[in-house]
Predict the 3D structure of the following.
Amino acid sequence: MAKIFFRSTNGQSPGVDLREAMLAGQAPDRGLYFPEIFPQLTRDEIAGFAKLPYREIAFRVLRKFTEGIIPDDDLAAMCRKAYNFGVPLEVIHYGVYLMRLDQGPTASFKDFAAQMMAQMFGRFLQENGRQLTILTATSGDTGAAVAHAFHKIPGVRVLVLFPINEVSLSQRKLMTTLRDNVRTLGVDGKFDDCQAMVKRAFADPDLKHIALSSANSINIGRLLPQSVYYFYAASRLAHPGEPIVFSVPSGNFGDMMGAVVAREMGLPVKKIITPVNDNDSFPRYLASGVYQKISPSRNSVSNAMNVGHPSNLARLVAVYGGQMDETGRIHKQPDLAAMRRDIFSSSISDERTRSSLRDFWSQYQILLEPHGVVAWQGYLDWLAAEPGGDVPAVIVETANPAKFPEEVEKVVGWPPDVPASMTAAIALPEDYDRMDVDYEKFREYLMERHKPGASLR
Ligand SMILES: *Cc1c(COP(=O)(O)O)cnc(C)c1O
């Protein structure tokens, strides 16, 4: 195995190794880091996953990227620490399965990446004795997952920006009740405003003296661990070599890119269904070849997917030989025909989300929440649009229904059970700051907190 290097999607920065790519977050040319080549898993290696627990599959996939950076024994230990929760696979009906990625400490799939990233960051910082501030914008779930994963990791402080009126109460409490090295900032704006403020801070010469990094899905460290559960699902549900379909409810496209990475590494995948909510810039692009981001982003019941311009789209475009910059401008068209062959996307309105949630419950007596049901409805759209759906399909449920009790209760008539990890956080007192969408103020806030002698939070 050779050491893997990462280059920027904007093509103007030199290639770096995993450690540098993760610590930097964004490339200096404002592009996103992406593997220069994808390491391969052989058919036999993948077939061997059938008998292995999740953490061991994680180790065997991730070591392809950590070669020359993290010794195997250490990586195996990190995987054991990161993945001490289950990944339930339920049968919906013959050949169609639900993968629940909601058993981590903050009950969304974001835990899978955040837990592993925290392990890696902790290690890299210890190695070079550095201190770092993780700056992250969240539409609800990332902030909670990142805050929990990095809570009390030495050398790291965490600042989470969230749109104050766009997150549910339990989403908010999962990030505002931590203390120690974690601080949260409620912004009177949208997720896109939070993301824009974070991006500006990274590019701001006045903040060069502060070591900032990102735990957003722009960080390659977020993406790689999200490929593992696709290998895991296939190892349990498909025969060796049998192609499989994944339906992944999408906002910033980090989760679906995990499936793309798995496929590029050798997993046979027939289709990656990438349904979105009313923020439909991607399905429009796929159909027309013309990309127009949606600004401002549209609110919807699947609030963790209220993203007008999915930042990982630049990586998807790169996989298909094109180039898109961070503003969404396409400098070189990707192979759209190949993209259409591999990916299907439709937009699911709030009305369809709600009716589908109700229908799914009455048909299967399985409870979904507003994001997972977008995956289900996207799968139905695909079946209707394209023949040949007769292969194993996995619907990805990205959050626990208890994170969206109001929506779920409206549909099924009672509030969902709350997992123990959430009840504990919800009982604790909250503590967070508030701010308008005002970059100058935000810069001030950051400078103030990083003065010599300022408290860790
Ligand atoms: C973040 C999130 C999504 C969207 O994932 P992306 O990687 O941004 O596409 C979907 N569902 C839930 C519950 C989320 O938290």
